[in-house]
Every structure is written in structure tokens, then in C-alpha cells.
Specification:
By secondary structure, the protein is α/β, with parallel strands linked by helices. The protein is 31% helix and 19% strand. The chain has a six-stranded mixed β-sheet with strand order 1-14-13-10-11-12. The protein has a five-stranded parallel β-sheet with strand order 7-6-5-8-9. It has a three-stranded antiparallel β-sheet with strand order 2-3-4, covered by helices on one side. The longest helix is centred in the middle third of the chain and has 22 residues, at 168-189. Mean pLDDT is 88; it is low at 5-38.
């Protein structure tokens, strides 16, 4: 087994993405073309809960889900507040250098409404799939913008975040640059025609990640195939250890949250999988859970590309 270590985040700028940006319409004029920092011009953001009117470009932003946090940092912005994967657990290490001034506001699963209000934000960003039930409470504090999903279709979260701070063009460039870099890495590692399994060990089972998950989508951009599966609505499979042979890619990437193999199914599965082709050929790579599973966004994606390149070249 080769354990791949994190290298520094590299954000690559490229040409404008061919995918259309999330609609951002200015009241009295189109402000979607770039940064209008300091502008008092109002604009409307189309988002998962409808439309949100912003009186101007916000500068006191609270984010309550990890894809939006990565997106803000990638755009060069620092939120005044953000949730953590676990309350008090700290922000993702790979983003921490840019978040010294950011206050924790509870966990992503249970944002602290009072702590959010105390920061007097002028924008709150979250996701409908996680936070629909508290939308009205948050909207009473400040204009609130939601993406539809969290992690699955992660570029949707990146785009709605960018739209809400009037930086859609900048996010288009970041996503386009990422796609170009993924293609280049794929050529370097000979990804075309190869299959990959992306697994995450959990206390009672393990997951296989499909092409619409965050890490799965990056591997797909690189050129790998994740196999034909009956993926669930989150583009993944939850499997018990006896189905270890479903980890059947020619290359295996896997994560073990917390790092203790005894605390998850990692020891059991890796004790059984000796006959798998990737194991036989020495192509199993343990990678960081924080970036591959939690670090959802442009910054996290570039770290994944770093680690794929490191592992396979």
C-alpha cells in the first residue's frame, strides 16, 4: 500500500467554462460579469429556495456547508463565520490558513442560529438538502442563499456561492482551469481505459463512490471509469464487508476517516481483498479523507489531482 500525502493546494485559472453559470440578474443592470466589490447596486440570485435579493455585494458572509466554504476561499474571500464538520472540530486543514478570522458557528449538521445572528451577517449560504428546515430562521437574520445539493453535483454549490458574491465569471474560470488540468493529469497517468474504485471505510460498512460524487467526478474528469453500478441517489453504494470484491477497479483509492483502521471496516476488508487485481498489482492508495470526502470544491479538487499524479507517476 502507498499512502499519498497532501501537497499544497494549487488553484489553476483557465478559460471561461462552457457550462452556463448560474443565472445572476442585476436589478437595473447586469452585474454577473465580474467582481463588483464595494458596489451598492442590488442584484437578485436564483437559488434553490427561489430568488434572493441582495442590496449590494456582501462582505459579512456566513457559510454553513463545506462546498460553499471551499468556493469562497477559492474566490479569495474570507467568511466571518462557518460551520465545522463537528462543532469545535476546527475548519479543514487545507483551508485553515485562510480562515484565521473566521468564527465557528456550530456543526454543519446543526448550525448555531444564535452564533450566526451574533455575527450580523449580510449573507448566509447553505444547502437545501441539509438545511431546508431552518431557511426561514436564517432568512430572518440576513439574505440567505441555498444550493440544491451538497457534495453531489458539487459545481452547483460552487456556482451558487459565486453568484451570491457576484463572482460568477471568476468561478467559471476556476472550474474551466480545473477541467483542463484534470485532462492533463489524465494524459500523464494514462487514465484512459482504466477503471478506478473509490472506497471509504466506515465503522460498520464501506462506501463506493460513483461519478456524481465529489471525488468520483474528479476521477471521471481525469478520464477514469468508475464502473457501471446501480448507484443510489447520492451516486454511491453502502456495502457490508462481505461485498469487498465490489472494489474491483484496476486502481483503488480509499480513505479511512479518523485514521484508525480498527475503528472502521478497513482492517477487515483489506484482510480479505488480497486476490483483487489492484491489490495484486500494487495499485492501492490510501488518500486523505479531509480533502477527498470533505474538502469539496476547487481547492480540494486540485489537491486530489496532486495526489493522483503523485500516486501514479
Amino acid at each position: 500500500m502507498l499512502r499519498v500525502n497532501r501537497s499544497s493546494t494549487r488553484v489553476v485559472l483557465g478559460v471561461v467554462a462552457t457550462v452556463s453559470a448560474l443565472l445572476l440578474t442585476a436589478c437595473g443592470g447586469n452585474t454577473s460579469s465580474g467582481d463588483a466589490a464595494g458596489s451598492d447596486e442590488a442584484f437578485t440570485v436564483q437559488q434553490a429556495m427561489g430568488e434572493t435579493l441582495l442590496p449590494g455585494v456582501p462582505d459579512r458572509i456566513v457559510v454553513i456547508d463545506s462546498p460553499h466554504l471551499d468556493a469562497l476561499v477559492a474566490l479569495g474571500l474570507t467568511p466571518v463565520g462557518a460551520t465545522e464538520s463537528a462543532a469545535g472540530g476546527g475548519f479543514p486543514t487545507y483551508l485553515a490558513d485562510g480562515l484565521e478570522a473566521t468564527k465557528g458557528v456550530g456543526s454543519t449538521a446543526e448550525p448555531d442560529i444564535e452564533a450566526i445572528a451574533a455575527l450580523a451577517p449580510d449573507l448566509i449560504i447553505g444547502s437545501k438538502v441539509r438545511h431546508e428546515t431552518i431557511y426561514n430562521q436564517l432568512s430572518a437574520i440576513a439574505p440567505t442563499v441555498y444550493s440544491v445539493n451538497s457534495g453531489t453535483d458539487w459545481q452547483e454549490q460552487a456556482r451558487v456561492t459565486a453568484a451570491s458574491v457576484n463572482k460568477s465569471k471568476e468561478m467559471d474560470d476556476l472550474l474551466s482551469g480545473l477541467a483542463a488540468r484534470a485532462v492533463a493529469v489524465g494524459k500523464d497517468v494514462g487514465a484512459e481505459g482504466q477503471t478506478v474504485s473509490m472506497a471509504r471505510f466506515r465503522p460498520a460498512n464501506f462506501r463506493l463512490y460513483g461519478p456524481n460524487t465529489f471525488s468520483g467526478s474528479i476521477l471521471t474528469q481525469v478520464g477514469f471509469k468508475l464502473g457501471e453500478r446501480d448507484w443510489n441517489e447520492y451516486s454511491m453504494l453502502e456495502l457490508s464487508t462481505e461485498y469487498y470484491d465490489q472494489i474491483d477497479g484496476e486502481i483503488i483509492f480509499y480513505t479511512n476517516p479518523g485514521g484508525d483502521p480498527k475503528a472502521t471496516t478497513m482492517n477487515t476488508v483489506t484482510g480479505l481483498w488480497g486476490s483483487l487485481s489492484a491489490v495484486q498489482s500494487g495499485k492501492t492508495f490510501e488518500v486523505e479523507d479531509e480533502t477527498w470526502m470533505v474538502g469539496i470544491g476547487v481547492n480540494g479538487a486540485n489537491i486530489i489531482l496532486d495526489q493522483v499524479s503523485e500516486a501514479l507517476t
